[in-house]
Amino acid sequence: MNTVIELPRRIKKLSGPKLNIKHGCVELSHGSGGRAMAQLIDQLFFAAFDNEWLAQKNDQACFPVTTGRMVMTTDAHVISPLFFPGGDIGSLAIHGTINDIAMAGAKPLYLSASFILEEGLPLSDLQKIVASMAMASRLANVSIVTGDTKVVERGKGDGVFITTTGIGVVPHGVSISGDKACPGDHVIVSGHIGDHGVAIMSLRNNLQFFTTIESDTAALHNLVHHMMTAAPNIHCLRDPTRGGIATTLNELALQSHVGFMIDERQIPIRTEVNSACELLGLDAMYVANEGKLLAIVSPEDSATLLTAMRAHPLGQDAAIIGEVIRDPRCFVQLKTKTGGIRMMDWLAGEQLPRIC
Amino acid sequence: MKYIEEFRHEDTAKMLAEAITTAANPERYYRLMEFCGGHTHTIHRYGLPSLLPSNVEMIHGPGCPVCVLPMERIDKAIALANLPNIILCSYGDMLRVPGSNKRSLLQTKARGADVRMVYSVDDALHIAQRNPQKDVVFFAIGFETTTPPTAHAIKQAKALHLTNFSVFCNHVLTPVAMDSLLQTQQQEADAVNLDGFVGPAHVSIVIGSQAYETVSQKYKKPIVISGFEPIDVLHSILMLIEQINQQRSEVEIQYTRAVTREGSLLSQSLMAEVLELRSSFEWRGLGSIPNSALQIKSAFAEFDAEKRFTLPDTKGIEHKQCDCGAILRGLKKPTDCKLFAKVCTPENPLGSCMVSSEGACAAIYAYGRGSITA
Questions:
Q1: Residue B13 to residue A339, Cβ atoms within 8 A
Q2: I need a surface site. Which of A80, A234, B112, B189 has the fewest CB within 10 A?
Q3: Cβ–Cβ gap B371/A341 under 8 Å
Q4: Residues of chain A by 3-state class (helix, strand, coil), percent to 5
């Protein structure tokens, strides 16, 4: 298994003119397989992602495999607008996939990135996105080891779509899964809900309103590692992205055949997010997050876990928001601020299209 | 959040719930109708039924603009959207309501029509300005809350000399609908006898509380105009019970922070300038009601989509088992409908009450099933 791979030190660049990043835009030739495509890949993608696997310039990445259970996930990102307060489609594409791996308690190792570019996308925008991906993957210590680029005609894409696939490894003895919630378990959220969705909505053409809220997009694997060190027996972890915490809790309820009783007063939510939701007639429980997680843990472990989470920068506002209850109907219910009890059902249709 | 959190506070809610329990005479039953779907939504979203004594029953009324619009009007809007060179704009909920053959505006959009969701009629006006080569039609719906903006947009379009903007007007009137509802209930033997109304919040900001005085006196029913927050609703219920106990039937304002007796004179004059009464309008559930809706005055005829385009004579074929009609009149509860939560769900709505967030069926489905099926 310990194959040693000879790797060239530097990526050899294709000779030819430099890309006009300042004024140029994506053209169909950038996806045609010819010299223009090779230049785009060399000067933009390789320059930013620069690592030993890409340097091999193969159509695939070859890497040694460690023992243990491997985790694999994939996620397509089609967000509009491409740039938003707190992040952009690039950082989101890295964080989203890393988080899906981390929610299994796994250590993320490698990523692939597949780009569908729309003819006419300014190269300067593409460079910003790619630089943001490079930065996010470097900070997370996870390399982008292989990728693909396609160009579609103008009008057939939305600037850029990015699909990332990730591979990670689950340490021995760890078994975190959505079907492990037990009646009596506590539900912990890692911080304020709804920031990402509200930041995106504030930029929508027909909604534009001013807000200081930034997307919470972040890679959560370090927080998860920190949590598992403090409380190794976490039952479930999930990041409440599309559909918000309400949707994630409904998924977990079905998977584990349980119900939830959530206490609205305990859910951390910023005043600005609350106000924006009021204004737009949205329910923050269904608004997307990109840097938050829900943890389900036995009541014996919950205090320890909460303390550990609050000691981490990405979990400092963590709170216990409710508990798992026995319910063959798998209903998620909410004790409201006003003291009544209501259902927190699956979202019907969409609150607003495409926010992550 | 200032002015919102105070109106959702648990301690205040508890205090009011206790006051309601104390005030309610255990010897009798109180049937109160919340006219507005907005109130139905609040009642279920905050779980208020679990705070009320068992002899106080809340019955949802017809105050959901999307719900009361008959299917034939939706069919007409779909026909408009399918005309060449048209951009049809409307509010989000309206796009999801099924017309005949279960086809909604959203599904019409998926099949190629240019249908756009807007947050306000102003957005539709901007779309018209940006697309001079297209005919932009605003599918206007709603009670008196959304009417002044429509009137304003029509005036605006005239001032801007826009030749590609028109309105498919479906605005309806609240007090007339209340009158019709009470009149039918007097005539029908099996009708539920209502003891009072939780009156509309936003509508009343426009028309003022005096707009309900005639109907309240005519049928001897107390009406308390209530804000949309849970504390507002609980407070209004308490005020209604006190009126009923004292055998008063007055129009009172609980929502004093926004509603006056006169209402918004500016909005009223805008409506009067641009719109006039329709001799008759068909309501889902309530049937044809004289003088219950508005149409565009002839001075603004060029902005009237009904005059600008030839609309097909649509009938609107309702699902046979759908109880939306009886539900809108307060005769049935959503859970009485055979289709509720089985065939008819928010994902696959057969009737309008399951679509709109203000619809009674949607409110019970989304928030209330925990207690129903337990």
A1: yes
A2: B189
A3: yes
A4: 35, 20, 45
